[in-house]
Amino acid sequence: MVEFHVDRGSGFPAYLQLGQQVREAMRLGWLQPGDRLPTVRDVVATSGVNANTVLKAYRELELAGLVEARQGSGTFVKGTLGSAAPEVLDPLREGLAKWVAEARSAGLEDEDIYALLREVLSGGAQ
Amino acid sequence: MVEFHVDRGSGFPAYLQLGQQVREAMRLGWLQPGDRLPTVRDVVATSGVNANTVLKAYRELELAGLVEARQGSGTFVKGTLGSAAPEVLDPLREGLAKWVAEARSAGLEDEDIYALLREVLSGGAQ
DNA sequence: TCTATTGTCCTAGTTCACTAGAACAATCTG
DNA sequence: CAGATTGTTCTAGTGAACTAGGACAATAGA
């Protein structure tokens, strides 16, 4: 089961945070087709956001074809995202963890690491 | 000189995007103490956001002690962020680029890569 | 069938990001 | 000094995000 963590006051919309967390869990293989998302009321109780906000997040995921809402029973993962095959991800994760350890021992903070990745992904100096 | 790229419609506030881009440029060593940020009017002309929005971004950076606004002459980088020594960053960037190439040839999209990094940084399975 | 659970809708209202446009104030340059 | 450039302030308004609270509808399970 996925556990949502909504950071109010971070500036960006709660419904986007929820959506992103679902997508991310799908990419990492934590959520697979058929899995059930937390109940709207669950999320309300857990994260403190309003039911309409949760609904908005879920509706966007549904529009994107990623989940399917079934009244009375819950919201279920329907599609797939990314190439979340564990046999592909696992070795990559290991390699990344190694690099991260290196970066951290060189004194880099998490934000430095994110910045560096964004730079590399967007093609260097641009 | 830093070039801003504001993605309207991405959902999160323009002033946060501007602030983040300055912080990131500082982390990567593109902006160093004494460097001048683009003029408020420059950013307005370039990115299309309103002057007040740019001002809000700059004011937040100033409150954080990262920049200093001097009326009549511009806004200048004051503090430092991260450990942006090139002799430290360069080899790390190289190693990361290598890993990214590997991940991409394994079929991962950028979003997969971000998700994986977030997972690793937050300490694995959490 | 009855009941609990779930998603869904509705109305009303508040807060905040952002826009628009104008004016002022300090600094630099010639 | 004069003019251009820069940051700064102000007022007014729009739209979106979010809250609050209630009600309805479909499904699952006993």
From TrEMBL, chains A, B:
Gene3D superfamilies: Winged helix-like DNA-binding domain superfamily/Winged helix DNA-binding domain. Residues 12-80 form the HTH gntR-type domain. Keywords: DNA-binding, Transcription, Transcription regulation. InterPro entries: Tscrpt_reg_HTH_GntR, WH-like_DNA-bd_sf, WH_DNA-bd_sf. PANTHER family: GNTR-FAMILY TRANSCRIPTIONAL REGULATOR, HTH-TYPE TRANSCRIPTIONAL REPRESSOR YTRA. This is GntR family transcriptional regulator. The gene is ytrA.
